[in-house]
Fold these 4 entries.
Entry 1:
Amino acid sequence: MAVHFNQVAIVGVGLIGGSLGMGLKRCGLAGSVVGIGRRVENLQTAVRMGAIDRYVAAATEGVRGADLVVLATPVDTYERHLKEWGASLKPGAIVSDVGSVKGPLVAQAEGLVGERARFVGAHPIAGREKSGVAAGSPELFRGARCILTPTPQTDPQALQKIREMWEAIGATVCTMDPELHDRVLGAVSHLPHVAAFTLINALTDIRERSVPELDLLAYAGGGLRDTTRIAASSPEMWRDICLWNRTNLVAMIEAYEDRLRHLKGLIASGDGVGIEKELERAKQVREKLN
Amino acid sequence: MAVHFNQVAIVGVGLIGGSLGMGLKRCGLAGSVVGIGRRVENLQTAVRMGAIDRYVAAATEGVRGADLVVLATPVDTYERHLKEWGASLKPGAIVSDVGSVKGPLVAQAEGLVGERARFVGAHPIAGREKSGVAAGSPELFRGARCILTPTPQTDPQALQKIREMWEAIGATVCTMDPELHDRVLGAVSHLPHVAAFTLINALTDIRERSVPELDLLAYAGGGLRDTTRIAASSPEMWRDICLWNRTNLVAMIEAYEDRLRHLKGLIASGDGVGIEKELERAKQVREKLN
């Protein structure tokens, strides 16, 4: 029989939390979905869009009776949330999340839910540069990868239910150690975001210094648009990701700096053969990424 | 009356040269279009796609009698080309180009066409990561910007004809000093390409060092895909752009390095307020770029 939760609480009904709610309801995986959030207007939109059935401001009330509680807020808030309503959880409830960083957060969450409930770390790789439930869609996770990060403490039944839930709304699920998750995502997601944010900020600096009279970005083509699309992502969320994956990310930025310095040296010295080799190396790898 | 050329020669029938040919023929701007290139298979595709009417291998023969000759080869080849067939040009012919770098190339081309013909530098901002005429389209330039780079030597009538030609095939034309062009494009195009090539190469390094057992790119989301799309661009073409815009590009890479070092420092020291400010600055600028 397909996985089913009588009552689901989603803490943070934004793009990801809201889209999960829509997916759960659309696929009949939840009897009812309650949203917990700060902004009433956003929660009303979530009801209108079919992401949640109702909402409450008091999280302790919202999680009471829920079989599944999903944390879909910036990762830095997990501790505060779990301390606030952990004791109100129904015994045996599953607590999961959708956060982009795992590592120490998983052990932290496991500690905070204690014996009362069962934590399963999850990360659907399906972000967008838009925030808020209004940008959400029940199809957001279709074809996306979802990484679950079990530990020796993870309850196998809870893990299986979370796996089936994500598969039912269209994701391809894999499992990974929380530490490995952060190295992998640091490389394929966090570093590209840092590069995109930096590129836009560098262009602002260059404009101010070099062509202050021009609306520089008016001359942008599709290349710049694509390269920097993710620089419009939520600063609050990405601040937390940078902080929580700090050690991996700093090392990866340094690997990036090394490569950039190398290419800059080739350009500065006019080494055409070296430049072409460097670009060809990138092209061959990039072409494998469809 | 609309601009019209009895005979046009396109030197290098790739993505841009081929799409220009398709646009000229579709809009009835050319009596006949002859393609000049190295690869017969590509030239046959160009005929089949309606980019050119016929092709020749000998450029001297191809440019003879042409009212307009468009250089659509990597910029490093301009000198060789103009020396090869400059003396075969019809007196008064217009020579133009589609290159992504201008600066010293414009003076070079003006010198090489001499009194015999009239050079007008042009750069339609409409690249793609795909190369070859097969990826071309007569609609490629619709809505795109095309920068013309006249100098005091430029013939006003030739400039006007080239402007009307690009407008007729859908581009929005502006003019700019060749040196300013290279600063602007260095910022909005060349630097983003360097960042994208570097990101892919850094990920290869990170994978080899940190997770050699994993197919790292299998975990990529839309963010990495977009950020690195242009890293599949032609290494040969981008080698030449890097070399010809070397001085601007190195200075811009340094501006980028400064910003990256700043953000890395904020992350390393765990300065959440500073990180968020940096990301917010990027987001606000990026959101203006539609």
Entry 2:
Amino acid sequence: MNILIIGAAGMIGQKLTKRLCSHGKLDGAAITQLTLVDAVAPIAPTCDSIIISTQVRDLCAPSVATSLVSLRPDVIFHLAAIVSGEAELDMRKGYQINLDGTRYLLEAIRDEHELDGYCPKLIFTSSIAVYGAPFDNTISDDFHLTPLTSYGTQKAMCELLLADYNRRGIVHGIGLRLPTICVRPGKPNAAASGFFSGIVREPINGQSAVLPVVDTVRHWFASPRTAIDFLEHATTLNPDQIGPRCNMNLPGLCASVAEQIESLRNVIGGDAVARIHREPDDQIASIVAGWPEQFDATRAIALGFRAEQSFDDIIKVYLEDDWQKR
Amino acid sequence: MNILIIGAAGMIGQKLTKRLCSHGKLDGAAITQLTLVDAVAPIAPTCDSIIISTQVRDLCAPSVATSLVSLRPDVIFHLAAIVSGEAELDMRKGYQINLDGTRYLLEAIRDEHELDGYCPKLIFTSSIAVYGAPFDNTISDDFHLTPLTSYGTQKAMCELLLADYNRRGIVHGIGLRLPTICVRPGKPNAAASGFFSGIVREPINGQSAVLPVVDTVRHWFASPRTAIDFLEHATTLNPDQIGPRCNMNLPGLCASVAEQIESLRNVIGGDAVARIHREPDDQIASIVAGWPEQFDATRAIALGFRAEQSFDDIIKVYLEDDWQKR
């Protein structure tokens, strides 16, 4: 099996690469070839059984997608995007990378499809940012797409494109609306959502963390490990199972900040909790108030997707997968 | 007031042009300048009070939108699109005209906006094709966008773009999901939906008409006159009334084919009804089965949009506006 990962240098891309190299197979077939692509140099792990190549490429030029698809990957993971904050600040760049990049990829697949029926599996990482407030308490798959950011708009437009190409049989596509990934490894960042990981990660690492919102705030989480499980599992689904509505909410854990803190106390201890400093920030609080809290992922669960059941488990995944490896 | 109509040569574009020339004003202001643009030559009515110019232009070239927006219209009606059947047959052309054309227009507006805050009203004609079966019995504004045609996909993508540009304050946009326009004047066409108009129009004109579906089929209608009312009324709404969810279902009349036929009997007579020949067509029946029947347009009604209350009225509009003028 020949696999292409676009956006391979990001946190999810790196973890997916490691997982694929560790398993050596995907959807029951041995992986023979793995191409890692990103705008910055992806790191290729050593792996005897798989031919791994890396490319530093920018998907904004249509010829790049043509060249990548000419490798005839059986499965394409399309993870590349600029993040919400950057897409909001630089409108042109956001549409170029997050919309045009995906469109060029689909068009390149169509060109190959028209030659001989080539039809790869395409796993696209979408986002819960396709939804915008006001929300129902629980957001179901059939809630309308009313993003309130350019990033969410671009993801929603890509979902529509993917569904049209999927319906036409050009690609076996699936769009996964990932929960907020928590605990993100690495350093704190400036994202408004950063504190959800920070209030866990920093105290575990003996550092102080700022909590800018009240602890009744709820959000929708899955661990990085679960995100990789989602990507792997998506490749095992056949088109009949997915049908024309190929974009879906994934399961996650709805937890309040108070529940996050209680889990930190349970798993690590009171000393860690004491490193969290409450510094209310109205701007962050108002951004977070526009975010969804909980989803009905009945359909994805019926398709076999699984997420954590408690925030304790999410912290344990961080300890096992990322903390020890610092 | 300076007005631009893109897609001015189509049925709706022509009727809108006539209405604007007849009223001489829009949203309370005198119309001074009217620019009619289409890929085929628009017909400019004579009108003493308005400077009317016509342009034969193809919106697929980005420079065309730049040139049109440099005229600094206060209101832009963007009606241009290739129809569902053509967009399905020619995927590339559909995305070029129905998606890229709209995007170039919005980007051209953004370029002018960045110069000095220019922010026109943009009335965009969307379609109930943004929805795809399976449906709820009645489709509300918050039903998800799952189009089952490339045309519907393109309209849904444009709605998302419009909402993002609207949210950013670059344009005062509103997307109107028009009901099926009935009775369409003119000759029968090959569209699967053509019979909804044909079984009324042809018998009125003394010709026979084919009914390819059972008469329990229901659909969602508004007259051409009502469609023009919608477009005019949309220009009177201010941004605060519209808010970030700027795309909406419009009111219409839910009528069965049997009710259409009864109205034909009421308004015209039994001789006209006798000209309808039932010739079941499984292919058309299956296409029509994937179409929505009824919408909840509570929001648009609250905003002052109004449609016909009976199919008798829809037939009378045809008699008044189109039939006598043959």
Entry 3:
Amino acid sequence: MHTPHPRPLDLLARELAILDTTTSLLHWDAETGMPPRASAWRAEQTAYLASKSHHLLTRTEVDQWIREAMDECDPSDLHSLSNLRLWRRQHDQASKLPAEFVETWEKTTSLARDQWVAARASSSFSTFEPWLTKLISLARDKARYLCDGGATYDVWLDLHDPGVTCQDVRDCFGSLVPELRTLLSPAMATTRGPDLLSEKHPYPQESQVKLNRAVLDLIGFDWEEGALALSAHPFSTTLGPCDSRITTRYTEDSFLGSLYGTLHEGGHALYSQGLPKNLHADPVGQAVSYTLHESQSRLWENIVGRSQLFAPTLTSLIASHFPQLADLSPSDYWRACNKVEPSHIRTEADEVTYNLHIALRFEIEAALFDGTLEAAGIPTFWNELSEKFLGIRPPDDANGCLQDIHWSAGLFGYFPSYTLGNLASAQIYQAATAANPTLEPALADGNCLPLLRWLQDHIHSHASLYPPQELLLHTTGARLHSAPFLLYLKKKFL
Amino acid sequence: MHTPHPRPLDLLARELAILDTTTSLLHWDAETGMPPRASAWRAEQTAYLASKSHHLLTRTEVDQWIREAMDECDPSDLHSLSNLRLWRRQHDQASKLPAEFVETWEKTTSLARDQWVAARASSSFSTFEPWLTKLISLARDKARYLCDGGATYDVWLDLHDPGVTCQDVRDCFGSLVPELRTLLSPAMATTRGPDLLSEKHPYPQESQVKLNRAVLDLIGFDWEEGALALSAHPFSTTLGPCDSRITTRYTEDSFLGSLYGTLHEGGHALYSQGLPKNLHADPVGQAVSYTLHESQSRLWENIVGRSQLFAPTLTSLIASHFPQLADLSPSDYWRACNKVEPSHIRTEADEVTYNLHIALRFEIEAALFDGTLEAAGIPTFWNELSEKFLGIRPPDDANGCLQDIHWSAGLFGYFPSYTLGNLASAQIYQAATAANPTLEPALADGNCLPLLRWLQDHIHSHASLYPPQELLLHTTGARLHSAPFLLYLKKKFL
């Protein structure tokens, strides 16, 4: 018996995976280890690899290979069919983008990051504005290349969440925002109390690192195939089939930011670590959508990490790393880590106001893509929307429109995935605990592995076998809807 | 006026530089941040990029481009002539290697690293032996492809130090080894004394990191274009025109290993940081040889870092990081950091015995390439040579033939560069201080910058404009010889 020759699409998949994971390493290193003046050359490197990748994916033979594979495919082989459907999507999308555009896009987003970091540090929107103008212009170009005459914002949403449109998101916020605004006051009352954690600072960074590592152990993060590092803006990334890494950031006056950042990014990493390794280079082996990715991160960060059920475990772990908190009770800790209150920074927002932060960003992006807003108008519009949704105005742009890394990295249309991910997380958790009544007792004992196993079996291991809405339907019996999330918040805060 | 089109060799240089610096990042990350199970995929990545690089460099057009550029070159343009001479060397060497060999070589050396780490940790030569056999076989193949019928070890020496032959190294050790053996006893007597540093351990890693950063500041390391990290085996690497990084390792019972590791690798980084940035992608813009590279690292590590002149500055810096050493005198510190005594680990050896460690490795490599030694025979031969040169036998292979990373990384013929670099460092320092009598008074004041400036002007900035022996002749008025090094040791220890 001899091994058959790998088919051309399999060879291409391997080559693209090598280029893409190498690009991911270039980005990871830029955030975690690269010295400041290295960024110009780094932009050359990422642009070069992106061009190579684009060139490989758009060769005319690829179209032919997909057709041939389709013709040869057994119609009952769902796996191969899904894989070819995704190849088709990838090839067709890439083919609509000119090579020069791909290089310019990659170089600009790579260089813009430094500009954003500097602008945020000095809260100087005006220094970032020309870069943002350029990024928005390129993002509109990209959407125009891809849109086939449809709405350009829809293209960006679809890139992260296949099938989701601007109208879907508008409808979602249309019902969600009033409910959240109604919930706000009672939830603030429920979680009001003395600030027990701030009183006891400082929390040395070294101890926070140890705590975060212990929490990652607890949720089942695999250190043989992952790492935790420090960066200015927390993120997670996949550098290969056995290499899922996350970052967090530290301030010594509170450990909550680094801890919940770790749980959030750790949730992303658990999804990556649960993807089928034998398919890691295939389109069908990738995470299915950003909504589903965020559902995993928000589930571990909030539904588990901020639950009453898990509070005793977390409180005793925290006390073992910070002796000054030896007397902290689980209920006091629960209140401290759930404090509901309008605030400026999205990543540190509570579960009620978080989605209002996203609603604000959605309005801005929608306006950018329907052409009614330009970069120069963002700060004013941001502050008005902050007043409208959260009832507060940022003291400066560092706490307002400069706070997020996304636009500088070319991530437009990403923010809605956070809210859709929140909805999905509640829907999935409801389904999981209904299907398996032992999950919550295990969590109460500090044992996260049964829940992780369930998520692996019902979400992670399927990768992109089904379209995202279909996967959710399979897993939870319903398409994405907001009822489970609102029920969850009401049970929690009322 | 318009910019002329870049010539094909310039475009190729840029492309190769992108691929090579990206490969360097893949290696850097493998040593500093990669989780354990990621190594198999990492080997795929490095093999892929090496293949691409080899493919680009060996295309038949390249030969034609070099010829055309030679024809067009102004005979008085030394810079372009040198660049084309080096292009010719690179292209011809690469063209002699089959593509499959390049991929196998890259994959094997990438995977062998893990095997070496594990074997050293358990001091188990037998688990590494099959890998070493494979590596030696590939190294012999590589040399046979490149040698044009000459001696295979000469090829490996020439790869690191253009022009150096096995006979050159044999002649060098022939005179050096007896001199060093004669020096050993008196130097041991000079540096004998109570072990003042060990008595005062532990030295917390965090403080060692701060000390190392302060020492790098002192010697002029540019943090805007460099970084310091932790790895199992210290090394330095260049990831781009503005990105020179180094690693060190820590044990809390002594800070000397991490400090002198940092000075050594820092010396390499100063050379890289001093290369002309506008030529970073050109063959003529690279470091000229490993001997010259090691001359820079050994100069900062030993001639400066272990000098009486610099001891007051270093002692007070050390005391400011380790309060338990507040009473340490510069002369006591000088004795502690210069203690001469045969020992097992090369990287921690004193200046007299260090070159005996290299003589041992040279004998082994020479025997491997003349075919009189195979992997299985290395431990016995190593231990015999250790007895012969150093008068001691390693207690196990971890302290013997498994101690160095080099062979597992495919670095054969590298070790002699350390000794040749030691000779060059003394010769260069002698020339520098003779030419500029203010350098040593500045060093005595803790000011390293005049010396660094001299090295930048006379070594670093020339990159590969001249062949290495010629550069040394220009800079010091003599070809490489051992008299300045022996004079230096005798003045220091007698």
Entry 4:
Amino acid sequence: MTAFEALMAHARETQALAQVAGRLGWDQETVMPRGAAEQRAEEMAAMEHVLHARRTDPRLAEWLETARAPDATGAAQLRLIRREHARATRVPADLAAAIARVTSRAQGQWAEARAADDFTAFAPVLEEVVGLRREEGAALARGGDVYDALLDGYEPGATGAQLSAMFEAMRPRLVALRAAALDAPQLPALAGRFEDAAQLALAERLARAFGYDLGRGRIDRAVHPFSSGSGADVRITTRTDPSDPFNCLYSTIHEVGHAAYEQNVDRALALTPAGQGASMGVHESQSRLYENQLGRSRAFCGWLYGEMRDAFGDFGVPDEDRFYATVNRVHRGFIRTEADELQYNLHVLMRFDLERALISGGLAVRDLEAAWNDRFARDFGYAVPRASLGVLQDVHWSVGLFGYFPTYSLGNLYAGCLHAALRRDLPDLDTHLARGDLAPATGWLRDRLQVHGALLEPADLITRACGVPPSEAPLLDYLETKFTALATG
Amino acid sequence: MTAFEALMAHARETQALAQVAGRLGWDQETVMPRGAAEQRAEEMAAMEHVLHARRTDPRLAEWLETARAPDATGAAQLRLIRREHARATRVPADLAAAIARVTSRAQGQWAEARAADDFTAFAPVLEEVVGLRREEGAALARGGDVYDALLDGYEPGATGAQLSAMFEAMRPRLVALRAAALDAPQLPALAGRFEDAAQLALAERLARAFGYDLGRGRIDRAVHPFSSGSGADVRITTRTDPSDPFNCLYSTIHEVGHAAYEQNVDRALALTPAGQGASMGVHESQSRLYENQLGRSRAFCGWLYGEMRDAFGDFGVPDEDRFYATVNRVHRGFIRTEADELQYNLHVLMRFDLERALISGGLAVRDLEAAWNDRFARDFGYAVPRASLGVLQDVHWSVGLFGYFPTYSLGNLYAGCLHAALRRDLPDLDTHLARGDLAPATGWLRDRLQVHGALLEPADLITRACGVPPSEAPLLDYLETKFTALATG
């Protein structure tokens, strides 16, 4: 066996074990008995221990020294193995253990602080988390930018400076567009009750329409919608709210974006380092494009209106146009996860700026709440009334996720680029969408992007799929066109 | 850390990983998407690889050399660790790999041969399996009895000679009892249709009544009923047949016997070598006692009759006595898994004798079908019409399970002993059973036996629980009393 073959065989088994760990996470959120939580934590820790040992296996360094890739695909695989090995071995074991310990404690303290609306109760442990992650970033960066090293864990090749430039260009236009949308007359939200079983049946119909292969996946209910797994076993979850069917339907379409991406990766890459989505940002581009640019388009909403009438009868919305406007209703709020397509990125942009400042040391944890409230007031025009609606709303920082938030907006930005290219290549797309036929769009995405898995670096992948390098312009043009028309509509 | 502590920490993580592998098996049989089978095989193989590496970890031998147990519980744990380590290290890796390869192939060939009713198509690969398992037994036995070494993998401490003596004492009495029962006038089987949902609801009610904790378990549907997991996450499956509710109800009670046993092991032993059932035989004693001595008793059938009427209305059985007789109906057949309480052991005893002869070389694989048919005719009084109803009916030998069959009858024998002791200690048991109150019986089993997990060797455990050493007499007395009364009605 050559060194390259040894690396690939090792990576394949690691991927298989990572799938097992992922399935255990799925099990925990869907079917696990309540009383099994403590034992499960120990089972998960044992799996993590096995995976960590494999990722820092001393043989990897030896093999990597002499490995020669036989072809371009092999070179990409080798790049991914090298990258993961570097990330796994640069962080001292005791630092990794300290981060695991502190973030486990921090999650509990965050939940308590949020319930009590008291940021000061969370600040001390958050300061520990920031300090340790900064240390980890420094170990990874080896003299380079600390935040970039953390970001690289979620979005290979991206830098804070690049993202900042694009996000800064987005912010003023989003703020202006938001203000205009909220100045326009407001539509009421959907009223009435929507039966759970009918929501789930329609969600499954949508999942199939968007190309989700239920022969290699399944849909279950969970508290939070998510997608998990790669290759031949990619599962999604959804939830129902009897007063808000859009929650179930659009979270299903969103998760199908993630899941179909994993299912559509070239099967020859299954259980290899490249046999999965290219990055968090590219993943989010798929889920958001499925959900928003396709799922909330005027043409598709026309078809969905008919499906909703079939499923729920007369639900108080008189026609397709009003339905489209209701689906895309812009409303005041505080919570990122409840934000509409227009305002979502404003939530993310502020988190990105704040966390970058936390990691660089430009912002102290004790000043974070004030900085949050100040920025929110500037971008949204009204004050945050309490910490649970502000700085304490997201779990991310408590679990040590720094460098993760920007991938949400980068995903939207990529979705904007892909959508523009898709429209250029498929001029009659709306004709298909109006019939509930997603196949031309999802097929284009599959062939242009999804099939390649992680063979290409994210920015290269988007550039190849679109024919032009990624920028914020297509997303902004799309949002301005759509929401200006809706506001004046 | 002392050598003993190091061993226990290592064993704990191995147990946690074994639980994960078990959960993966559960997933495969219940919720896994069809298309995931191939990928899942690779995930399972990766888990097996990890577990095998842990079980043959060279550090274990070092630790075992110097480990000193701090107390009696520690001594039991050490005994179990030593035993597993010996079994794992005595078998050469290439032999283990050859067995895995051949049995994987043999399963497919068995299924094809069974479908074609052609034993000769299966014989060559079975000969390979027998040869390799014999080789494995010899490696384990180190000069001792080869079959005993295989048996020891399922039933520590048992020997073929001991079992043979008990089974030989059972056989003539079972043959005579069976003939008498079939000479008596025959009751018809249950007729009508029994709605799936009502079957499942009653099955869950029975599971709870028999002490299954659904806060640390769950019930799902699968093609074959089984129980899986230990400690805080022990799941069972069941199945429904609209024309035969007993299939669902009694398989549920049977699996609850296995599952409640695991749930009732002292929680302080969770994720340790002793934190699970003591052996296959002891496990089967619980499942059979729950199912038969309790679940098919006259007193309990009285209560169940009322439940069945509540669930299904008038289902054509006029009263409790007729219901009891229907539940315990003895009927001609060929298939072990469909056999009633009276005839079941005759099926197992012949498999035990045949497989012992195969392993010793006293019986050649090419002569197995003739030997099977001859023995069947002698014990059951009629001929096997085709191989799928005879020698090809069970999957066991194709997957290399030699030494496993006798644990079924040993379990019944143990159940007979435990039932006699239970009746001695709880003279008013029938009063409780007649109210559907299983708590006195399951509480007795929990405190006398289940709580100890694998701390004691199986035969010692039964002896302590019953106050006398195990023998076949109580089971035979019980069966003769019960089925003679039923036959004379």
